[in-house]
């Protein structure tokens, strides 16, 4: 160090006690200097120059990596609000429910304008819950991924294929007559059956009267009819090896390959890991790069990028013992093998099956130092230039990749815990419905009941259950269970019943089927959460048949006036709900009084009734009555003093 005054001065200024130092520039892919890669030692290293080729290779890779990471940060930020990310199911890579809604809306406009035929397929996988219960969610997730891939392979590029939620998929077939759609459904059933996946399927075509929403409802009903007809004619057993062996009717069977199941990860982040692998593949100059996870006795391919065909894909799992990844972790395989034919693994099964001509790999470690798996890259041809610097560069990339991988795995662990709690809800006593009376403040008469979902004592609050379920894409089944319990438990109650659902739940055919089974005129539906303009149009269309039969809508005051009252204009609710946070203290708060007084006039102008939730004192009730609020929730019948002039329910 003393031989280079600038280095000596820099070390003195930084307090670095170093006797030897190596510094090489880190360049971006465009050649711009983005930093420097430095190494220092307390000892003099006269042989340091011999290490420069490896350091430069690592710096080149780190430059590309840093450029990629910075770009990825921007991509991830954009993806949080990007339309594509919002419309993608992270598990299957297919469209999600939002993509389905958008596709239905757009295709309805085209079909109505041109009069072209359009068909809808709805599919529901058989036995998935049993598989999740017995083999775990990893196995179920893998079946969903395989089903999604098989579906996509059987339709045209212009057809929309989405995962509607849970084990249900939808296919939208533009310019398709019913006979063709039925043939497509048969082809899909056969392809899934060949993979060992049984499926119930319904087909319907658009009519001018009911549109595509009507076709969706009809296809959904046909799917349930198919499921009922096939019940008892198929089984969903698990073999001793844990392989799902469902057979579709009329197929010879065939088990789903024994795969461990790749955890679902956020789409934008997962693309980031693949992007970094592509950087590694291009930098080292190989055909294939992959990350493997070594867990238990299995090797699972987590991420794969390739420019040639390979006999595995992301999610493929197989016994770990003796694989090249296992050998690498055990230290029995060098980091770089320039020619496998001239090595100890010349006749290794992996080398032959994957056509590995040259190989470079690095062991991946978690933050706590424990082995996670491997980062490997290979070509189908020998590469005499492949050596230790490439292995060192790959190891440097592996350390960066593990930051993303561990973040993904942690997120999936949290999601798995939520799914486990949801699956175990019945064992804890299940959810139940508590009914709060809704009274007329004019005469104290009972006009209805507010259905509130209650969860087992000692567990999280209801809001936490629903928000956690929404975060892992399971809010639909939970909302459906809450609605079913409320409808069943309210059959003998007097007056109407206020129930709640999100726009996504309220627009699925199962919601219409369930609510139509009771008297819709007894129901007041409070629409929860936010909805985009297109969602509001679809919500209004989906609920129109039920509203014609007497269903009424309710909006909470905050939702009613958001975005300039867009939801009120679109949905025209019969009830406006004032949250208990506004009602609490209204007898003494000038600001709350002003707000409620304005809401009374607002609801009257709409032709709606105002419902105050949760008044807790006689003073609050008296003020609400004086202000002209017609309805109150959650008060005992004797707390509301009768007043002249009857007021009915909404």
Describe this structure in words.
- The protein is an alpha/beta fold and 650 residues long.
- It has 4 domains: 20-81, no CATH class; 92-230, Alpha-Beta Plaits (2-Layer Sandwich); 267-419, GAF domain (Beta-Lactamase), CATH 3.30.450; 424-639, EAL domain (TIM Barrel, Alpha-Beta Barrel), CATH 3.20.20.450.
- 44% of the residues lie in helices and 20% in strands.
- It is built from 22 helices and 20 strands.
- The protein has an 8-stranded mixed barrel with strand order 13-14-15-16-17-18-19-20.
- A hairpin with a 5-residue loop joins strand 13 and strand 14.
- The longest helix has 36 residues, at 388-423.
- The radius of gyration is 31 Å and the shape is globular.
- Residues 116-241 form the GGDEF domain.
- InterPro entries: Biofilm_reg_signaling, EAL_dom, EAL_sf, GAF, GAF-like_dom_sf, GGDEF_dom, Nucleotide_cyclase, Rev_trsase/Diguanyl_cyclase.
- This is Diguanylate cyclase.
Give a nutshell description of this structure.
This is Diguanylate cyclase. The protein has 650 residues and is α/β, with parallel strands linked by helices. The protein contains 22 helices and 20 strands.
């Amino acid at each position: 160090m003393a031989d280079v005054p600038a280095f000596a001065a820099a070390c003195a200024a930084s307090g670095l006690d170093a006797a030897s130092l190596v510094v090489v520039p880190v360049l971006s892919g465009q050649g711009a200097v983005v930093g420097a890669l430095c190494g220092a030692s307390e000892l003099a290293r006269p042989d340091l120059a011999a290490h420069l080729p490896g350091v430069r290779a690592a710096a080149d890779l780190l430059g590309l990596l840093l450029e990629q990471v910075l770009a990825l940060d921007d991509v991830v930020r954009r993806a949080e609000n990007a339309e594509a990310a919002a419309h993608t199911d992270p598990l299957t890579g297919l469209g999600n429910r939002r993509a389905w809604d958008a596709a239905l809306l757009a295709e309805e406009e085209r079909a109505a304008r041109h009069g072209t035929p359009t068909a809808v397929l709805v599919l529901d996988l058989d036995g998935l819950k049993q598989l999740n219960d017995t083999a775990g969610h990893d196995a179920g997730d893998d079946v969903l991924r395989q089903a999604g891939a098989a579906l996509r392979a059987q339709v045209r590029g212009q057809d929309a294929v989405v995962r509607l939620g849970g084990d249900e998929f939808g296919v939208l077939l533009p310019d398709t007559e019913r006979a063709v759609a039925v043939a497509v459904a048969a082809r899909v059933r056969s392809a899934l059956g060949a993979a060992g996946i049984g499926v119930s399927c319904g087909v319907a075509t658009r009519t001018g009267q009911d549109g595509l929403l009507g076709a969706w409802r009809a296809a959904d009903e046909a799917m349930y009819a198919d499921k009922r007809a096939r019940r008892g004619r198929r089984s969903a057993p698990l073999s001793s090896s844990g392989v799902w062996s469902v057979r579709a009717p009329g197929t010879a069977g065939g088990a789903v390959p024994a795969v461990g199941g790749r955890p679902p990860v956020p789409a934008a982040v997962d693309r980031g890991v693949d992007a970094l692998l592509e950087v590694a593949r291009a930098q080292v100059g190989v055909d294939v790069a992959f990350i493997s996870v070594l867990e238990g006795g299995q090797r699972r391919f987590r991420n794969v990028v390739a420019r040639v065909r390979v006999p595995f894909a992301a999610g493929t799992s197989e016994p770990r013992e003796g694989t090249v990844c296992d050998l690498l972790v055990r230290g029995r395989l060098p980091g770089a093998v320039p020619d496998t034919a001239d090595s100890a693994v010349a006749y290794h099964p992996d080398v032959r099956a994957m056509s590995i001509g040259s190989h470079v790999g690095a062991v991946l470690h978690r933050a706590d130092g424990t082995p996670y798996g491997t980062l490997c890259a290979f070509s189908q041809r020998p590469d005499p230039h492949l050596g230790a610097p490439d292995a060192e560069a790959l190891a440097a990339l592996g350390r960066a990749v593990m930051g993303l991988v561990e973040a993904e795995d942690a997120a999936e662990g949290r999601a798995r815990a939520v799914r486990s709690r949801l699956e175990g809800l019945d064992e804890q006593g299940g959810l139940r419905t508590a009914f709060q009376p809704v009274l007329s403040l004019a005469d104290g008469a009972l006009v209805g009941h507010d259905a509130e979902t209650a969860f087992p004592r000692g567990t999280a609050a209801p809001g936490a259950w629903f928000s956690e379920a929404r975060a892992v894409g399971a809010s639909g089944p939970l909302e459906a269970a809450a609605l079913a319990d409320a409808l069943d438990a309210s059959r003998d109650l007097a007056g109407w019943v206020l129930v709640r659902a999100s726009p996504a739940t309220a627009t699925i055919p199962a919601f219409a089927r369930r609510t139509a089974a009771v008297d819709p005129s007894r129901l007041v539906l409070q629409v929860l959460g936010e909805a985009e303009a297109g969602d509001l149009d679809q919500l209004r269309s989906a609920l129109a048949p039920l509203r014609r039969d007497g269903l009424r809508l309710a909006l909470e005051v905050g939702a009613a006036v958001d975005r300039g009252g867009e939801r009120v204009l679109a949905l025209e609710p019969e009830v406006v709900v004032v949250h208990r946070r506004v009602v609490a203290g209204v007898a003494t708060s000038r600001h709350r009084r002003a707000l409620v007084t304005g809401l009374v006039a607002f609801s009257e102008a709409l032709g709606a009734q105002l419902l105050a939730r949760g008044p807790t004192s006689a003073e609050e009730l008296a003020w609400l009555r004086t202000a002209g609020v017609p309805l109150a929730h959650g008060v005992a019948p004797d707390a509301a003093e009768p007043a002249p002039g009857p007021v009915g329910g909404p």
